[in-house]
Amino acid sequence: MSRAARVPSGLRARVVTVSDRAYTGGYADRSGPLAAEALGLIGFAVDEVVVVPDEAEAIVTALEAAVDADVHLVVTTGGTGLAPRDVTPEATRQVVDREVPGLADALRAAGREKVPTAVLSRGIVGVRGGTLVVNLPGSTGGVSDGVNVLAGVVGHAVAQIRGGGHGHDHGGMDDRDRDRDRDRDRDRDRGSGKA
Amino acid sequence: MSRAARVPSGLRARVVTVSDRAYTGGYADRSGPLAAEALGLIGFAVDEVVVVPDEAEAIVTALEAAVDADVHLVVTTGGTGLAPRDVTPEATRQVVDREVPGLADALRAAGREKVPTAVLSRGIVGVRGGTLVVNLPGSTGGVSDGVNVLAGVVGHAVAQIRGGGHGHDHGGMDDRDRDRDRDRDRDRDRGSGKA
Amino acid sequence: MSRAARVPSGLRARVVTVSDRAYTGGYADRSGPLAAEALGLIGFAVDEVVVVPDEAEAIVTALEAAVDADVHLVVTTGGTGLAPRDVTPEATRQVVDREVPGLADALRAAGREKVPTAVLSRGIVGVRGGTLVVNLPGSTGGVSDGVNVLAGVVGHAVAQIRGGGHGHDHGGMDDRDRDRDRDRDRDRDRGSGKA
To answer: How far is CA B183 from CA B102, C31, C62, in A?
Structure first.
C-alpha cells in the first residue's frame, strides 16, 4: 500500500473466506477480515465478509449472491492450493463469463518474489456481469500482497467492465497512452533517467 | 527494437485492427499502421492492415482470411480488454488450433513493467496451420512493446510451426543449447561475469 | 541447484522422454538422463527413464503408468514446442484432473531470463490423484533450469496433493506466513534491509 493508490469513490466490495476450519469455527478467520481492511484502505466500501466451507456449491452460491448484490469486486481468500478440498478456482470458473489470466498471473508473480510457493496458487480472476471476481490465497501474506497488486489496476478494470469502453479507443490517446505519459511525467519529476 | 533483432527474409505478416470507432471512421486507426511499421522494421513484408469492428464474426473472418493467405504471422490490435464489446480473444480462440500461453504472458509481462494495467489485456497467442496469431492490445504503447517482444522469438516460432522440427531434438545440441552457448559467448564478449 | 533445496526423503519420481528420434534410436537421449540426475540431486528416488515417441497415445499411456505406480512426481521432457508433432501438453491435459498454471508459468519465466524462446514452450503442470505431472522442454538447458525451479516448491506441492492440507488454514499461522517469517529471519541474518 506504499503508493497509496486508491480506487474512485463509490466502489463496493465483498469478501468471501473459503475455509472448512473457519466455517466450523475451528479457527478464527484472519485472512477475510484482513482483506476487508486492506480493501477499505484503498477506498472500497466493503459490505460483508462471508465465510463458507471448501465446497464448490457453497462458493458458487456466495459468489452469485455478490454478483446479484451488484458489488464491483468480490475477493475470495482460501481454497486455491493443491489439496484435494481446494476447489475455489473450479467454483469460480462456474460463475464467471470471462477470465482475466494476466491479472491472476500478476497476483502470483507478486507473491513469487517473496515466497516461491506462491506459484502453487491456482487462483483465477474473472468477470461476471458488472462484477470482478478475484481469488486470493488463504494466507494473510497472500491477501496483503494481492490487494497491493489490485490497488494499481482495479479502478481501471471496473471502469472497463461497467462500460467505460476506453479499452478500444484507437483514434485518440487511449488509456495506455495516457498512463504512459503520466508515468513518464512522474519519472521525470523524480529525476529518474528512465523514460 | 534496440537489439535490432530481425526475422529471416521472406516472412509475411498481416495486421488486423479491431475497433468499432476505427471501423466506422470515428477515429483514424493509429495502432494498426504502427504495428505494420514496427513489423516491417524487424523484417516482415506486411501485406495489409485490415480494420474490423468489435464483432466476433468479423474478427474470425479476417483471421481466417489471413490463414488462407498463408501469412506467417497475423497480429491483431484492440478488443482485448474487459469492456463488454472486447471479444478479440474469444474470436481468436475460435480460429486457432493450439494456444501458446507463454508468449501471451511474455507480451503482458513486458507491458507490466511500464504500465500496470497491461495485465488487464486478455490477449492470446495461437497457431492455426502455418500461421501464428498474436493478439496485442489496442494502445500504441502496447503495440510497440509487443512487437519488441515478438522480435526476439517470432523467427523461431515460425520455423517450428512450419516444420523446422528442431523442437524435439534430444540427441545432439538442440536450439535451446545453441542459444545458451551463443548467449554465453555474447556475455563473454561483453566482459560480463554472468554466464 | 545452487541453493541445495532438497525434498523430504521418501519421494519417488519418474522421467518420460518424449522424442521420436530418441525413441527410434536416431539420437541418444540426453535430456531424460539429465532430468533423472538432477531430480536425484534434490532428493528424489528416480525409478525409471521411459522413452516414448511424439504420439499422444504413447505419452498418455506412460503418464498413466506413472500415476498407477503412485510416484509423487513425473517429469516429461520434450514435445512442448510449436512443431506439428509436439503434442506433450495435449496428451498431459488428457491425464491430469487439475492444472497448476502458476508453476508452468514460473518454469517458463525462469528460462525466459536466459533464453527468450523459452516462452514458446507450451508445457503444463497438473495433478492426477497423488501425482504431480510436470512438462519440461526437450533441451538440456530447459531441463536443468526447470528442475531448479521445482526444487523450491515440489516438496510443498506434494504435501498438499497428498492431503497435508495446510493450504487453507486460516486460523493459525499457515505455510505462507511461516515462509514469510523464515524469509524475514534469513534476510535479517544476511544484514539485508529488505523485510
So the answer is: 21, 20, 35
Stretches where chain C sits below pLDDT 50 are 1-2, 165-195
Amino acid (1-letter code) at residue B78: G
| Calpha distance C184→A180 (Å, rounded) | 34
Q: HEC states along A109-149?
A: HHHHCCCHHHHHCCCCEEEECCEEEEEECCCHHHHHHHHHH
| DSSP E strand boundaries for C86-177 | 98-99, 125-128, 131-136
Q: How far A95 CA sits from the closest chain C CA (Å)? A: 18
Cα B188 off chain centre by: 31
Q: Please list every residue in chain C whose beta carbon sits closer than 8 Å to the beta carbon of residue B132.
A: 82
Of B160, B168, B171, the CB nearest to C28: B171
How many whole angstroms separate alpha carbon B52 and alpha carbon B64? 13
* CB-nearest partner of A139 from C101, C105, C175: C175
Residues of A with Cβ-Cβ distance to B54 under 8 angstroms = 168
> What's the pLDDT score for residue A26?
84
Which residues, 6 or more positions from C193, have their beta carbon under 8 angstroms from its beta carbon? none
CB A95, CB A126: distance < 8 Å: yes
In terms of residues, how long is chain C?
195
* Residue B6 pLDDT: 86
pLDDT per residue over B149-164, tens digit each? 999 999 999 999 998 6
Min mean pLDDT across A177-191, B43-57, B79-93, B130-144 is at: A177-191
pLDDT tens digits along C37-89 = 999 999 999 999 999 999 999 999 999 999 999 999 999 999 999 999 999 99
Which residue carries 469455527 as its cell? A25
- pTM score, whole prediction: 0.85
Cβ-Cβ contacts under 8 Å for B84 (sequence gap 6 or more): A161, A163
The rounded distance, in Å, linking the Cα atoms of C83 and B6 is 21
Backbone torsion region of residue C70, taken as left when φ is above 0, otherwise alpha when ψ lies between -120 and 50, otherwise beta: left
Q: Residue B127 in contact with residue C81, Cβ under 8 Å?
A: no
The 3 state secondary structure assigned to A83-115 is CCCCCHHHHHHHHCCEECHHHHHHHHHHHHCCC
Distance separating alpha carbons of residues C133 and C96, to the nearest angstrom: 8
- Among A21, A118, A119, the residue with its CB nearest the CB of C170 is A21
Distance between CA atoms of B30 and B47, rounded to whole angstroms?
17
Whether residue C37 contacts residue C184, with contact meaning beta carbons closer than 8 Å, is answered with: no
